[in-house]
Structures
1.
Amino acid sequence: MPVRQLDPVLVDRIAAGEVVERPASAVKELVENALDAGAWRIEVAIEQGGRKLIRVVDDGAGMTAADLTLAVERHATSKLPDGDLSNIGTLGFRGEALPSIGSVARLEIFTRPADAPNGHSIRVDEGLKRPVAPAAHPPGTRIEVRDLFAATPARLKFLKSDRAEAQAVADVVKRLAMAHPQVRFALSGDNLTSLEYAACPAGPEGWLTRIGQVMGREFQDNALRVDAEREDFRLTGFAGLPTYHRANSQAQYLFVNGRPVRDRLLHGAVRGAYMDYLPSDRHPALALFIDCDPHQVDVNVHPAKAEVRFRDPSLVRGLIVGALKQTLAAALHRASTTGGTRTLDTLARRNVSPGKYPAPPPAHWDWRASPAAPTGFGENAQASFAPPPAADTRAHETPAAPDLLDTPLGAARTQLHDTYIVAQTRDGVVIVDQHAAHERLVYERLKKQRDAAGVARQLLLIPIVVELDGADVDRLLENAAALAGLGLAIESFGPGAVAVSEAPALLKDADIGRLVRDVADTLAETGAALSLEKKIDHVLATMACHHSVRAGRRLTGEEMNALLREMEATPGSGQCNHGRPTYVELKLSDVERLFGRR
């Protein structure tokens, strides 16, 4: 079969398959063009998920008649003034978006520069270009794309439902809006909830406001500011608290020089930074922005510009991991505000029958007139209770110190079921899981010892022999050097057994045999793919669990308050080693609302 030159229109349609995968891809290209044109207001409208209509209107610089003629030609762009592909300072640069869209749809562009007396328009019908004509139009540009993929109907079969395509468009607009908070964005159309993001002021507060517009008020309340710099890279943004997590990574928004990206290197760095705080099946929520010299990153590695390649990827990964770990450690005991909300919702569901809601008491209601009014409430405090309460109330033996009430976790007032510490703050109540909290404290203490000079060890008077499966013995002996650095000295003791001659001093009262078996299980679970450092962290978490204050152990008031104070000073104490919250806080106003007082 002879070789032949492809028709230019067919070439454009092939290129469209790379650039315009779905309606959301076209919206992304057009909105990025508007941002590169300096627009401060961008409006997007779609019909039938973008198949029937995509309209993007902006107030940017606009184009002259000569620019408009070239804009719909292949490999024509205003974004590479010097032709240097390593110095790209704009969002779009390929020069294929408009001709590619015009080759598979009906494309119409209306534009006018601010200093021009009138505007111009051009139309491209499935690759056929019409001449430029004068048109009445305000300063800026309006682009309309109708009947997308009409020229390539086979592509329509691969599109999802109108609702799914509309949601993909909404996601594109949200990501671009987050990267440009000073620009007003609006999105309307069928099969989606209309969006309108007002322009936000410059600076971190304005950025957080825009992120809150996209990710919701809850994220704003549970976000930690990130700001770090290393060599030619700067990392800014906001990271969610570890206890504010999601079932997938959809709430992770990553940007490089204002460009939304989905990059495995960046997502892997985020995962590594949160590994010490989150369960393996949960994902953090965050919005991070990397700014660097354009020469340090290649944004030309993907037709849809969704991936990037850094000149020094290890530097970028180290910056993200280090900055996030430092930010999370500085949060100390903070846990997400959603814990209290979930608690109140649970209480409300358990006390209200399905379909029924408690009616608030009438304004004139007086409990003293009720036939069920309890007797003795007019006497001295607690005089009406003949038997003492069942909970351990030894913390009530002395009044709560006023200075403790002003601390973040308050003053311990009682212990319930020998498991939960109830503390009082100025404006609420804190409930602490004593085992989960102490487990995290011991874990952080062990890590600090390891990083300083190795975990302190104690020589056992008589070595303890632990019988294990042959595979577990092999795993323990293979990691013996690393375990020795954690204070656990293990050596072979014949087939199917190991001997423990030294144990961490902090775990001197632990069941060593059970500890060794749990460590073997941890090594089996982590597998060979996990790095040695991460394996060690898992082992340390297992050791910490053995030394923690167990549920069912009674604590004195002094012990409870000491635990609260140590939590306030320990990084990551808002969640245990397994990613569960160590405490929930209920504001007094929320409790009053639960009882109909507000």
Note: The domain at 8-197 is CATH 3.30.565.10 (Heat Shock Protein 90).
2.
Amino acid sequence: MTISRRHFLKRFSMFLSTLAVAPVTVAQKTNTLRNNVLFITIDDLNDWIGCLGGHPQARTPNIDRLASQGMLFRNAHCAVPVCGPSRGAIFTGLQPWKTGNFSNGDKNAFKSIGREFKTLPQDLRKAGYNTYGAGKLLHGNINQYPIDDMFTDYGPEYEKWLPFTDKEIVYTDKELNGSVDKSMIKRKVDRGPGKLNVTLPLNDMPRERNPGSRRIDSFDWGGLPVDDSEMGDYQTAEWAIDKLKQKQDNPFFLGVGIYRPHIPLYVPQKYVDMFPPDQIQLPNIRKDDLSDLPPVARDLALKEYTAGTHKIVVEHNQWRKAVSCYLACVAFVDAQVGRVLDALDASPYRENTTIVLWSDHGWHLGEKEHWGKYTGWERSTHSPLIIVPPKNSQTKYKAGQTCDHPVGLVDIYPTVLDLIHFPQNDQLDGKSLVPLLRDSESKLSDHVVTSFGRGNHTVRTNTWRYTRYYDGSEELYDVQHDPNEFHNLANQAKYNPVKQELKGKCPAYENVDYFVSMKYWKAVIYKDRSKTELFDFKDNKAIPEGDNVASKHPQVINTMLRYIRNNNIKTKYVSIPD
């Protein structure tokens, strides 16, 4: 049998890796490195799971079962409320102001993950662990990372469009050229008699993002007459189950990356049938909810960068159907989680395996008139986090605990190291949550910070949420009495002491002189002027901050600096009036 050169080089690289870690493997036979790690991540899952009570109709018996076995962190928040930077922060244990990874548009920052900034799987692999992964663990194509340095073996990558093939979701030249309205192009998928036969988009809504794109827009939802096995998440779970059935000679890290309920919300019809749209309870909203927000916050709420607009959903009478399909996707995901947990229980590894389940961030379904993520509000930052220590250490930890102290997903990395008795990495920004696992009332931290763009930060405590934007504008919510964050208290003088205290918990940005807002421009002016960044927001698509145009528009930076100098401005956050 012949093998390809690429396959041979991969095998040879894996062989060399085993030689590189051979001196450490002796320690695997001791108690210090014997615990395995099952690492389950779910994309775009907000708190709509039974044990968190985010939606009264959510059905997640398997995730709830897992929570009953360990600790449910009810006040966990992401580092960044968008896929790539959140996952980057979790896997490197570093905040975005350290890595520069604030958005999915920060392409260079992604390249630094696993290279300049080492990751949890790399730590474990060097210690002699077998590190396995499948589905969506990091963001984008897994091959953009040093995968052979991170993983012993990687299974199926995530497939956003399954059960559709790439060809089925790409418009033909005839479809593109024959449509006058590029936002309403239809795509017929017909696999023949008795097989999948649908017209995309399933929700029959016009697209708002990238009209004329060759691919259908992912802001779509609907049930499909397909089996679970035709979905990518089922195949990811199946691969993980197969790993759990295999004999493992070394401790292992098994990462299971589940893609749903990320859009498109395509799911087998039987799950949609569990949530009839006419019986769906919609999120609690307030019609004038945006009236007390600063302009930059309203802009974030109403943009369609990560999904679509609330306006178009309501106009096309799709709100209940979308909520139904989101809940259906969550139920489907829960079934896949259950399959993996059942396989672990049936394996010889259950007694000495730590289980960590998390979502990269939350997701809006109409709250604040927003769909998607990348905001500083609770719906976007709040994430499920469940940690179950190994059964062989349950004398140290009680099952079925909950913790209401604010924690960050950036704390996962040091927590896993602590649970497997691995030396801590002092360079990590997070803190081990093991003290909380032992005593949920331990005083570990009183706040968590989430970033959503350079200079945009929100601080969550047990009682408050404070948000400061890059132009200096603010929000403040008493989350105990106003959990929906309807009433912005930032402009009330009596809350100034609270704001001052929470403002001090935001990152200091000691290397930055100014954050500046001027018309449709956003600038980050560093002490080292050669690093200055400028972002153009006038096209309504620039929220990702991926394209730094400072070198193309030096006159804009000069105008900003001249205004700051002429007005003797001393604050770091500057808003220049039109």
Note: The chain has 18 helices and 24 strands.
3.
Amino acid sequence: MIVKLRTKIMFILLSIILLLSLCMSVFGYLVIKNNILKTAQHRASKDLEIVHVLYNQQFQQMQMAFNLIDADDDLGLLRNYLDLDYLYWVPKDKINKEASKIVLRVDETTQDVGAVRIIPKEQIERIKGRVEGIKIKPTPKALPTDKDQLDSVMALEYAKPFMMTTGHLDKILVGGKVLNRNYKFIDGIVETVYENRFYQGKPLGTITIFQGDVRITTNVLDKTGQRAIGTRVSSAVYETVINQGRKWLDKAFVVTDWYYTAYEPIYNIDGEVIGILYVGILEKPFTELQKNLFFKLIFIMALTLLITIIFMPFIINPIIVPLKKILNTTKKISDGVLGAKVKEKTDVRELNELISSINKMSEALVERDEKLEVVNESLEILNKRYLDLIGFVSHEFKGVLSSVVLNTYLFNKGILGPINEKQQKALKSMARNLDYLTVTVKNFLNLSRIEKDELQVSKKEISLKEHVFNVTVDAFAQQASEKEMRVTNRIDPELKVVADSGLLQVVANNLLSNAIKYGKSKGEIRIDSRIQGHMVEVEVYNDGLPIVEGDLSKLFKKFSRVLYRGMESIKGTGIGLFITSEIVKQHGGSIKAVPRENGNSFIFQIER
């Protein structure tokens, strides 16, 4: 589709700006998204490290407190003061009955030991009192389970040996803090790390301790706004953290919302994974930030586009206005006003150079036109002289040749007296050369008529075979016989055309003459005719060397010949096929050459 230059430039500029805006938007979106994702996920990972430190500080605090306890202190008061769920003595003689592996480790090493342990329901009731179990709730993406209740508990437990003066172990002090539903413990860590902040009613930062894969203490809320106690971790996290003992650092759907999460395994004193420590940062604030930044970026791009559209005329007009004047001037020059010039100066160097070039071209065209007029006058005179010369010489030659041909014929037939064998051979050679010269003169006479546009076409109904090709075949029978060529005229005797028989005779003579000259000895020449709608098609075929595809276009040009090896001695002027083509055109037809497997066909069509 053709459009104005102004529209084209505006379209290109707007397309470039839109494309750049789109690329910048996509790039900005990806940069913002990736940076936010990486920042949020990195923060979750770092927060997990902080929570891990705070989690382990519980053991340090218990160690410090246990170091201040004497053997005769009141454990009941100390338990409340230290905010422990249980605190008791294990005498030396009852250590082997103690179920806690932490106590057994202290007995073995006589060193303080702190670790996480799972306490069965029966034992926790004995040392603390009845603890309400946790109902396990169905959780999407969690592993299938047949358990519906968690009765055991997870505890942070610390044990310290007390020695006798003899250096032997006297008893072990054991204390611990149960983590199940220990909201004070978990909220204290949340307050320290996240300042207990909320976003749209959701905790911004969440921390959870899992016993196995079950939440036992957390600030994660369910759909009802209650703590999501009893919900379970996903199967993917379970496989990575509990089964493989590795950290999980990725985005995850936690109960009701997406969080940037970090999970790490919780080990017991034997190095077995018994739970999971989780930290999560709510994704929604970051996605809102991402959207806001993206929309701001889109707004900036749209504002840039609007400003560009407003100021675009001021950018384009300094180019378009001079170009319009240049275009008007070139139109004047193309309409024949060769002296037209562009009277315009711009602040664009290239446009000034273009204007200068056009003005110089206009001056040069005026000078060239004046010179061409003189040259054309000379050429017209020379061409008239050339055509007159061709006509005069051809006409004079025709008269002289007629006499020479007649006398040669009379001598050759013995009418003017007997001749010997050598004289007869010489006369035959003279006759062939005179035939060639006669054809040449006739062709030049026809060429002169064509060039002067004096070729008169007098059409009447004729028999194509009887009035044209039979005459031609008879005229060239001797030449065909000398090369032992077989000429077959298969034109339909009933075929009639409305044409100039004399001009068609020239066509037939040229085609048959060429077929004999360029055909191979002892070969065949076939003349066929066909009716093609309102056209009559004639094909003249001869055995011989097929014409190369690249030479076909040369055949019907004036003074153009196509010769191959072995044809150097064949005489010709290169105007016979040109004249043939012009005569066929005068009869509303066309002519072409078609190479065959073992020869060539010249096919012409004329109107019936």
Note: The longest helix spans residues 349-413.
4.
Amino acid sequence: MFLGLVLLEMGMEYAQESCLRDYRMETLKKNLDRFFWLNYCLMLFSLLGFLLMISFRSAAEAAFAAAVLISYAFLYLLPAGLLITILRWVCRLGGLYRFQSARVLVYAAAVVSMSLTHLLAIIDQVIYRMYSFHINGFVWNLVLTKGGIQSMAAGRGTVVVFFLVVVGILLAEILILTACIRIKRPFFPSKLLWRRAAAALLLLCIFLQAVGYGISSFTGYAPILTAAGVFPMYMPVTFRHQLEKLGFTPHRNTELTLQSKGSMYMNYPLRELKRVENPKHYNIVWLVAESLAAPMLTEEIMPATWAFSQKSIRFLNHYSGGSGTRMAVFSMFYGLYGNYWFPCLNEQRSPVLMDILQEDDYQIELFTSAAFTYPEFDKTVFARVPKSHMHEAPAAQGWESDRINVSLILDFLDKRDPVKPFMVFLFYESPHAPYNFPPETAIQKDYLKDFNYATTNIKENIAGIKNRYINACRHLDTQIERILNYLEAHSLLDSTIVIITGDHGEEFLEHGKWGHNSAFTEEQIQTPLVLWIPGQKPREIPWMTSHLDIPATLLTQLGVTNPPSDYSLGYDLLGEEKRTFTVVADWNSLCYVDADCKVTVPLKSLMFTTNKITTLRDQPADEPARLFAEKKDSLMKVMKDAVVFSSKQKKNGAEISSMTASANSGRKTDSNLP
């Protein structure tokens, strides 16, 4: 009898515990389900900002965008939802529901994962609004590479605003979760009906947007293809092959794609470089300014540089090789399109121009007011230069660093070995946003006094922002003048090549964008070029030139007899051949530019973007299909040139080195080179 009572009591306790465990499991699941769907509603609201960036031109485009919005709000939350589900199942299988700490851990993971998802969506929206691209390899490279964030020159106010946004999102998620836990009444009238309706709507939207994109891709319907690119991580679905089997004819000859050569090896140069027996060893002073746009080189804004350009060769229609610093500087040293950056970085392959200078035992000193690690010029352009010859100024503002670097250069020139040639490179930072400058160089008095990336309304303050930029360019001129005065005072101009240029340009909402690295507009990709070569008559060059032409010009002056096509995609600026088009790159694309139009070509077939065709002055092309057909031969040449220096087979180190050997291969080399 006693034993029966004990067993009955134990059974009742087990049943109570089991009921309590089931109740806890069901409660946790119910709360997390509510939490997920409330976050879905919040994500729908957040993504409305992307809809505002679409210029709706048809009902089909609007329906497609709405379907993508409903579908992708769910897909963006799916990783966080899966994580929460996995943790919930772990607790169930491990019997951890009875521990409050385990339930709190699951709730905390839900809050953090959802907060991170919303934060990424907000950041992506801000980046796309400002620069017209989503979080991509370029952005991650910016965040993860040493010196990347610093290169943005983000002030303390920007950091504070970002911190407040993070805190705000976390607090909002905590409030949503608290509501899910506290409010016992159902959020929806019929749980089963809600789930069926939600599932049906999601499946319908996923189906409609996929079919819409597939048909648009097949027929070349640009509005939907363009709208798809507005949404981050959009995954296209095409069924071209199936439709062709059914007898339908696809829209052809409107798209080009170029596979990035990051997985390929460099076959560079194509042939061994030959030189005259006794080449000249000109000194080289190479001055590059961040964001120096072509219109800044005027007598009013940059009087010293302007005066020097009047006795030099000034190029009036000069294009950068990139809309951002990475591809721009890469193009001016290698003479190659920007897609070659990736294999050169992988192999840490230096340009043949720098190889020649080091073989000739140049005294090389490199200075930057930014960082050699971002972009990774220490692993590409200057990969073989000892670290001790690479100098980064430590000042807080770019203009201060510029002054320090110029002083260091003048000190080096005073102490150098006068018997050996020298090469000096300086990357100025004065014209980089937020365009800081000392008060005495303010030639535009009506400038924006306080420029905060996060809080300043760019559109309303663009005139004051541009005036800051003009004042910063005036300061840049004073620091270029210091070097030019030294060269002239010490009679070095008779033996020195001087290059003055910008890495790229800068846009001030002329076409809806501010800054650079966001579009291939004239404002962003044109920059001045002033070239002083001893013995050359001063003149102005009106035809199209490019950063791609600088290596061929310098190597010819240094006695290389090979045609430029053996080691670059540029032309000798002093030669007879003139370019009819140029190519500008960013992280994701190449842009073909000629006198009539621009055609943007994705670097990868999975970029989910179409070829963009505009006029040279960045207006929508009236007949893009006709322009594309007319330029097809030139575009195919670009495609071939973009792979001509690549190989599927890796060369060994000895073979690569021998490719840059000159006829006078017995010259002394730097024993410290890696």
Note: Residues 1-20, 259-263, 605-609, 652-674 have pLDDT under 50 and may be disordered.
